[in-house]
Amino acid sequence: MQFSGILILYRTQKLATVFGFAISLSILSLQAHADELSELKSQLQALQTRVENLTPPQTSNATFDNQSESIIMLRRGRLDSGDRGIADGPNPIPADRGVTFSVTPSADIAAPVTEISISGYAKSDFIYDFNQNLGDAFGVANLKPAPKFQKFHSHARQTRISVASRTDTSIGEFQTLIEGDFFSSSECSSTGCLRLRHAWGEWQFFPNWTFSAGQYWSNFMPLFDLPDTVDFEGPVGLAFSRQGQARLTYSTGNLTAALALERPFIGTVTSGESGEAEGLLFDNDSNLPDLTASILYKSEAGHQLGFNAILGQLGVDGEGKPNSLITGSDRTIDWGIIGSAQIMFTDAFQLTVSGGGGRGASSYIVGADVNVYVTGTAADPNIGGRVYYNFAVSGALEISPEITLNTAYGQLYFANNDTLETQTKLVQTVHANTMWRPVSQMQLGLEIMWAKRNIKQSTNADALRGQFGAWFFF
Questions:
Q1: 157: helix, coil or strand?
Q2: pLDDT at position 1, please?
Q3: pLDDT at residue 76, rounded to an integer
Q4: Which residues of the chain have pLDDT under 50?
Q5: φ and ψ at 208, to 5 degrees?
Q6: CA dist list (Å): 470 to 125, 127, 129, 234, 464
Q7: Is residue 398 part of a domain?
Q8: Distance spanning both ends of the chain, measured CA to CA
Q9: Going along 377-441, which residue ranges are E strands?
Q10: How many domains does the chain divide into?
């Protein structure tokens, strides 16, 4: 028994020694790990300090005006009429075409401050005239009685490029549009020279008020009455002009009203029926801008009603011009009005009607030859505006999301007393086409068009044309 107790005591002392040694090792190990963790923490702190020294401090109230752009994003699609006040004309570029660059100066700002979009299309036209050649566009203002002959030709002059932008600033939103095509003067008819269509800027300086300036659609023309055509010019009887102007627009709810001062239309003045001025041509020497006004109402159902008016001055002035055909001067008032309506009978069918008249303002209307006459003598001329009446109606039927049928009729009539020999008394056109857009990148159109021009004291003239067009949007 005594031996057993000694043995147990010995084993207990030995076990205690082992446990003590193990505990010592654990403490040493913990101390080593603590040293490693402390060293790692020091290294992380040093690394964080280096990163902070390399990265500029961020502020939550960063603005575009005093800091450079830090985030640039790219998306498919353009700034279309749904995104901006600048409206589309006929045959618009699809909203999902083009590319838009969005610039945001700070990650703390959710919405981009500036957006810039680039879009456009390449268009090819293939034309067959059945009885006389009218050129690249179906221009019937000077359609003449002539021996009938057939002519085929093609061009790509309607090819278009568009750059638009929108910028938010501390004083309001700014929008711009710069757009060009190659439908330039006759000197470039074979190859096509780049031509400025729009150079336009808008400033929304108050929630309902916008100031605009540049070259853009005339405020005298209601844009929604222009039908989609393969032909570049479209039906007669519609206002169609891009003018340099300054415009003030007020919008509230479904109503938009605008006033503009525009460059007077530089047309050609023809002579009257008697006197020394007979047979002479003059440039319009107006010294005042045209005043235009428009009111547009859009209903929730998509119907539109519009009223447009113009008041301006026409004149001839040969005083102080050594090469002028006249030596005297005279001026007169010109004016015009247009009322238009678009009715959405269904989601797939719409009907548009437009009509108006005036004196001396027919230079804004498609199909006009001359808008002013001059009587009297070269030393004492008398200028007058030709009285006219214009009318157009068009319909669009969507057969499917890819196929649309369009048809349009237009006419422009001049009062007989203001019409000289060989001048237009009545001109009419009919356009009918089928547009097929299988994908947003392409549109194909096939169109047949007819025109007739009634000429005072002359044989009437008519024309028939077929045209195929292909748009390739980018």
A1: coil
A2: 42
A3: 87
A4: 1-30, 32-34, 51, 54-67, 69, 82-84, 269-281
A5: -110, 0
A6: 7, 12, 18, 17, 20
A7: yes
A8: 106
A9: 381-385, 387-398, 403-414, 424-439
A10: 1
